[in-house]
Amino acid sequence: MDFLDTETQSPEDSLNWETDFDTPPPLAPQCKSFKWKINVIDTNGNIEGKMLTSKDVWKLQNSKVIVHFDEDSGQPIGDSAGLLGSWLERAWEVVQPKFRFDDPTVRKEYVTSTLGSRCKDVKRRLWGEYSKDTRSETVQNRPDNVPEDQWFHFVHMRFTEKWKRMQERNTINQKYNTMPHLCGRKSFPRRRNEIKIKTGKTPCRAAFFIETRTKPDGSFSCEEAKTRAEELTMVMSQNPRPTTNVSASLDDEYAQVFGPERHGRVRCVGRGPTPSKLVRRSTVTRTEIENSEIVVQLKTELDGLRNEVKGMTTFIQQLIGTSTVEQVIY
């Protein structure tokens, strides 16, 4: 369950996390029984394919689940991403011993960010199942797997006026989400990777938007999504993309139709990338670059340096030749 640092306390099984591999934490029994097709690597570097549920990860000894990341977005993909996502109800310190990351320092940002999102989902689910009309009734209706003091604090926070105002604001903001995607619980990087495997190239944001709003029968998730898809298709036809696998840029077709990105997030990409991490895709041709003023200036300077080197080389050769003649005469 997700609480602020001041609200949490150490679970009773925290001391046994490293040694008691067969004993999952209190929330683990709620994990899905779905099996993920993943690879595990042992301490000797041997890799083996396995079919594991979220709870099976606790039984791994001397081996870790290999997590594959998408190079474009820096987010996990494939079944390892799904398994990791279902496991993120636990803290980063618990994740590390069981999952192998190519660069833990870099990947921690994604894991902790997703952890917060997953914990919010748990909060939302528990509130929907156990909340009552009054504060006192809700306090009494505590879930068995949530400590009493944490539930008490959580309930009191939810019944404050500040929380109610925030809920009203979120409800209003949610109404602006008029073009829902059809990915379900699958993350954008996982869906993008599936498209990449199928087509051989990374879909741009415009193509990805169209793909994730189109139903199997060819219809769209809503009328507005259809209108936007038609606009994106027109822009893509007018501006053919170069042969690169860049999924997003600040001036791509998606930005031309939907407008610039806001601070802190990039639409139609997924968790992680921010506007500051993107670059503008240059539309300047090679001829224009070669004829640009800066390049011409650099070429002029380079030609000057070449002439200076050539002159010095000739001078040194003349000195060497003169010295040789003098030695012969002597």
TrEMBL record:
Listed Polar residues bias regions: 1-17
Species name: Microthlaspi erraticum
Annotated spans, Disordered: 1-24
UniProt name for this protein: Uncharacterized protein
